[in-house]
């Protein structure tokens, strides 16, 4: 007969994280650069009280358990309060990426069935354009006080601070099943419409525990942590949860992400640890090097979203900043691997050690991974064999939101990446089976670009591939075959994209060719195209 353990049963709830931070790290600071232009300071104790007031306010508005509440916001203290107030009351915090094209934002808000959407003032023009296409949103909430509310708006607005001021904060966080939905993030729609990953309280708390571990992000109460990665980008890689969990000081940079603004905040607040995509560090490095500056406290950064160039890793090391390569996906909450050295690697020659650090790293506890060939047969971990990367674990999706067809293959999630794994478990992405383009850590759909180009009357066939860019890592290059007898210039074709896709999706250049290589089944051979244009120099580079 099985012998059961005799331990307390307590659900793993997101509200427990902010309660813990308020009770045991109550005086620790949260510092935010606000859209109003000033620097705001308060504590975890203040944050938890205001999150409780927000939960009360949402209840007064009629928000029900399981209802989705959207955000269009930068990294700031009010956004943090929404993370905890919404999920803590049993509703679902749905962070929307404001960098997407307005039509995609409207699709996402409607697909999620958001009841309310909270937004920073920066995004008022976006909200005014999107709101008429979102008839089921009951209210749009400007995340500011009455003094800074817009004098005029095409959309009826609620005031965030007025909602909170109407409540007393005398609110107990409810207890419920840890498997209830807590938050919702959508992919960037690289193949068709964006798809939603619906996280649970349990998956989020477990992810927070694991990501804070020493061989993952390595967060501790002695750190001052500034997530540059946006809170609308897969929940800022989980840092809004893992930082309060360990009680570290949290610095939120708001909309000013240029090198000079970040450096000022890093030095002023004595930041020790940060996280962001390579583009961010390129801008910060350029500012530091151009002005012959150094970092007084900044010692570690996690780089993800796209691979960090080796030269960037070396440049940060020269400034005494350790680079931790990481990899994950929206479908993985998002963290899957972190490239932290093993004990035996520390005495290696620099060149060998650097090769290891350039890999995407080893799984963090809770994630399992494997690589398989085209028939699904598992491949060896020898650092040479490459195959499709599959993962599984308690914070990896089982299916997409409002889609009953599971993407899993024998219980494993196919990532769409192609990778190698060495004998020590270090994984390295070698290619992407999807032809998505990652520009500054944000994804661009090659299919959407091709569909727009194909609609031009002079275009016979178009393929969109990635081309190297020194700042953005990758930018789209459009390869075009013209119709017989038709003429179209590069400038005309690029102008054709205006208003049809987000401006930053528009290709940087057009290459005209006589033919695009095809497979036996008529599909474009983009691998051959990428090889053909591997040394192509973009005019924007």
Automatic annotation (TrEMBL):
Residue span, AMP-binding enzyme C-terminal domain: 449-523
Protein's GO biological process: fatty acid metabolic process
InterPro entries reported for this sequence: AMP-bd_C, AMP-bd_C_sf, AMP-binding_CS, AMP-dep_synth/lig_dom, ANL_N_sf
GO molecular function, one term: ligase activity
Keyword Lipid metabolism annotated: yes
Residues of the AMP-dependent synthetase/ligase domain: 20-401
Keyword annotations of the record: Fatty acid metabolism, Ligase, Lipid metabolism
CDD domains in the cross-refs: ttLC_FACS_AlkK_like
Enzyme class, broadest EC rank: ligase
Residue ranges crossing the lipid bilayer per the database entry: none
Keyword Ligase: yes
Pfam families: AMP-binding (PF00501), AMP-binding_C (PF13193)
This enzyme's EC code(s): 6.2.1.-
Family according to the record: Belongs to the ATP-dependent AMP-binding enzyme family.
Protein name per the record: Medium-chain-fatty-acid--CoA ligase
Organism of provenance: Cupriavidus neocaledonicus
